[in-house]
Structures
1.
Amino acid sequence: MGIKLGFKRQVEANTCSDSDENNALRVMEVPITQLSPNPAQPRKKFDDEAIISLSESIKTYGVIQPLTVRKIYGSDRYEIVAGERRYRASILAGLRCVPCIIIDADSETSAALS
Protein backbone atom coordinates (compact mmCIF):
# COMPACT_ATOMS: atom_id res chain seq x y z
CA MET A 1 0.00 0.00 0.00
CA GLY A 2 2.40 2.69 -1.22
CA ILE A 3 -0.24 5.38 -1.09
CA LYS A 4 -0.71 5.01 2.66
CA LEU A 5 3.04 5.16 3.18
CA GLY A 6 3.09 8.40 1.21
CA PHE A 7 0.53 9.92 3.56
CA LYS A 8 2.39 8.67 6.62
CA ARG A 9 5.58 10.25 5.28
CA GLN A 10 3.74 13.55 4.73
CA VAL A 11 2.28 13.62 8.23
CA GLU A 12 5.40 12.50 10.09
CA ALA A 13 7.99 14.48 8.14
CA ASN A 14 9.60 17.35 10.01
CA THR A 15 10.97 18.92 6.86
CA CYS A 16 9.82 19.39 3.29
CA SER A 17 12.07 18.28 0.45
CA ASP A 18 12.33 17.48 -3.24
CA SER A 19 10.93 14.06 -4.09
CA ASP A 20 12.92 13.55 -7.31
CA GLU A 21 15.50 15.91 -8.74
CA ASN A 22 15.81 14.08 -12.08
CA ASN A 23 12.30 14.64 -13.50
CA ALA A 24 11.57 17.43 -15.97
CA LEU A 25 8.41 18.20 -14.00
CA ARG A 26 9.48 17.78 -10.41
CA VAL A 27 7.09 17.02 -7.61
CA MET A 28 8.20 18.88 -4.51
CA GLU A 29 6.83 18.88 -1.00
CA VAL A 30 5.95 22.52 -0.34
CA PRO A 31 5.00 23.86 3.11
CA ILE A 32 1.29 24.60 3.08
CA THR A 33 2.04 27.98 4.68
CA GLN A 34 3.88 29.04 1.49
CA LEU A 35 0.82 28.51 -0.74
CA SER A 36 -1.68 31.20 -1.71
CA PRO A 37 -4.99 30.70 -3.50
CA ASN A 38 -5.20 32.20 -6.98
CA PRO A 39 -7.25 35.43 -6.82
CA ALA A 40 -8.38 34.72 -10.41
CA GLN A 41 -9.71 31.26 -9.43
CA PRO A 42 -12.82 30.73 -11.57
CA ARG A 43 -14.48 28.62 -8.86
CA LYS A 44 -15.87 31.05 -6.30
CA LYS A 45 -17.93 28.63 -4.19
CA PHE A 46 -16.60 25.48 -2.61
CA ASP A 47 -18.89 22.76 -1.25
CA ASP A 48 -17.92 22.47 2.42
CA GLU A 49 -19.16 18.88 2.69
CA ALA A 50 -17.15 17.87 -0.38
CA ILE A 51 -14.02 19.50 1.10
CA ILE A 52 -14.56 17.62 4.38
CA SER A 53 -15.00 14.36 2.46
CA LEU A 54 -11.83 15.02 0.45
CA SER A 55 -10.02 15.82 3.71
CA GLU A 56 -10.98 12.41 5.10
CA SER A 57 -9.72 10.77 1.90
CA ILE A 58 -6.44 12.68 2.20
CA LYS A 59 -6.07 11.50 5.81
CA THR A 60 -6.42 7.91 4.57
CA TYR A 61 -4.62 7.94 1.22
CA GLY A 62 -2.64 11.17 1.08
CA VAL A 63 -2.70 13.74 -1.71
CA ILE A 64 -2.70 11.48 -4.76
CA GLN A 65 -2.53 14.23 -7.39
CA PRO A 66 -0.04 17.06 -6.73
CA LEU A 67 -1.18 20.67 -6.80
CA THR A 68 0.11 22.78 -9.68
CA VAL A 69 1.66 26.03 -8.48
CA ARG A 70 3.74 28.91 -9.78
CA LYS A 71 6.35 30.95 -7.95
CA ILE A 72 5.29 34.40 -6.76
CA TYR A 73 8.34 36.38 -7.82
CA GLY A 74 10.05 38.37 -5.12
CA SER A 75 8.83 36.10 -2.32
CA ASP A 76 9.13 32.56 -1.00
CA ARG A 77 5.45 31.87 -1.77
CA TYR A 78 3.63 30.00 -4.51
CA GLU A 79 0.26 30.70 -6.13
CA ILE A 80 -2.04 27.76 -6.71
CA VAL A 81 -2.75 27.26 -10.41
CA ALA A 82 -4.73 24.03 -10.03
CA GLY A 83 -5.75 22.20 -6.87
CA GLU A 84 -7.41 24.67 -4.52
CA ARG A 85 -9.89 22.01 -3.32
CA ARG A 86 -6.95 19.71 -2.47
CA TYR A 87 -5.23 22.66 -0.75
CA ARG A 88 -8.28 23.42 1.41
CA ALA A 89 -8.80 19.73 2.22
CA SER A 90 -5.11 19.32 3.10
CA ILE A 91 -5.38 22.16 5.61
CA LEU A 92 -8.38 20.40 7.20
CA ALA A 93 -6.43 17.13 7.23
CA GLY A 94 -3.66 18.85 9.17
CA LEU A 95 -0.91 18.43 6.58
CA ARG A 96 2.17 20.62 6.92
CA CYS A 97 3.39 20.03 3.36
CA VAL A 98 1.68 19.05 0.12
CA PRO A 99 3.07 17.65 -3.13
CA CYS A 100 3.28 20.33 -5.81
CA ILE A 101 4.41 20.61 -9.40
CA ILE A 102 6.02 24.02 -9.81
CA ILE A 103 5.54 25.51 -13.26
CA ASP A 104 6.80 28.69 -14.88
CA ALA A 105 3.60 30.41 -15.99
CA ASP A 106 2.48 33.97 -16.56
CA SER A 107 -0.94 35.20 -15.40
CA GLU A 108 -2.61 34.38 -18.72
CA THR A 109 -1.33 30.80 -18.74
CA SER A 110 -2.19 30.39 -15.07
CA ALA A 111 -5.76 31.54 -15.70
CA ALA A 112 -6.10 29.12 -18.62
CA LEU A 113 -4.92 26.21 -16.46
CA SER A 114 -7.22 26.99 -13.54
2.
Amino acid sequence: MPRAIDFHVHLPTTEFMQVTLGPYAQAAERYFRTEVKLKDIEQIAADYAELDMIGVLLAWDAETATGL
Protein backbone atom coordinates (compact mmCIF):
# COMPACT_ATOMS: atom_id res chain seq x y z
CA MET A 1 0.00 0.00 0.00
CA PRO A 2 1.50 3.37 -0.97
CA ARG A 3 2.00 6.06 1.66
CA ALA A 4 0.03 8.57 -0.46
CA ILE A 5 -1.66 9.09 -3.82
CA ASP A 6 -1.12 12.33 -5.74
CA PHE A 7 -4.38 12.81 -7.66
CA HIS A 8 -3.23 15.72 -9.83
CA VAL A 9 0.01 15.09 -11.72
CA HIS A 10 1.13 16.99 -14.81
CA LEU A 11 4.44 15.54 -15.99
CA PRO A 12 7.35 18.01 -15.96
CA THR A 13 8.81 16.45 -19.12
CA THR A 14 10.07 18.18 -22.25
CA GLU A 15 7.18 16.67 -24.20
CA PHE A 16 4.57 18.13 -21.87
CA MET A 17 6.14 21.44 -20.90
CA GLN A 18 7.63 22.49 -24.22
CA VAL A 19 5.61 20.60 -26.83
CA THR A 20 2.11 20.42 -25.33
CA LEU A 21 2.10 23.65 -23.31
CA GLY A 22 4.32 25.50 -25.77
CA PRO A 23 3.86 29.24 -25.33
CA TYR A 24 1.70 28.72 -22.23
CA ALA A 25 4.59 27.21 -20.22
CA GLN A 26 6.21 30.52 -19.28
CA ALA A 27 2.85 32.08 -18.42
CA ALA A 28 2.04 29.12 -16.16
CA GLU A 29 5.39 29.44 -14.39
CA ARG A 30 4.76 33.14 -13.80
CA TYR A 31 1.21 32.52 -12.59
CA PHE A 32 2.25 29.77 -10.15
CA ARG A 33 5.46 31.64 -9.22
CA THR A 34 7.67 28.63 -9.76
CA GLU A 35 10.13 27.30 -12.29
CA VAL A 36 9.47 23.78 -13.53
CA LYS A 37 12.60 21.65 -13.60
CA LEU A 38 12.31 19.27 -16.55
CA LYS A 39 12.79 15.56 -15.83
CA ASP A 40 12.56 12.39 -17.85
CA ILE A 41 9.86 9.85 -17.10
CA GLU A 42 12.32 7.48 -15.40
CA GLN A 43 13.37 10.20 -12.92
CA ILE A 44 9.75 11.06 -12.15
CA ALA A 45 8.97 7.38 -11.51
CA ALA A 46 12.03 7.11 -9.25
CA ASP A 47 10.98 10.23 -7.31
CA TYR A 48 7.51 8.79 -6.68
CA ALA A 49 8.94 5.38 -5.73
CA GLU A 50 11.36 7.02 -3.28
CA LEU A 51 8.45 8.86 -1.66
CA ASP A 52 6.33 5.66 -1.66
CA MET A 53 3.64 7.46 -3.66
CA ILE A 54 1.44 6.77 -6.66
CA GLY A 55 0.57 9.55 -9.12
CA VAL A 56 -2.58 9.94 -11.22
CA LEU A 57 -1.56 11.55 -14.50
CA LEU A 58 -3.66 14.34 -16.00
CA ALA A 59 -3.62 15.36 -19.62
CA TRP A 60 -3.71 18.96 -20.81
CA ASP A 61 -4.82 19.74 -24.33
CA ALA A 62 -4.81 23.41 -25.32
CA GLU A 63 -5.81 22.55 -28.89
CA THR A 64 -9.26 21.41 -27.79
CA ALA A 65 -10.01 24.78 -26.18
CA THR A 66 -8.02 27.14 -28.40
CA GLY A 67 -7.95 25.47 -31.80
CA LEU A 68 -4.18 26.10 -31.94
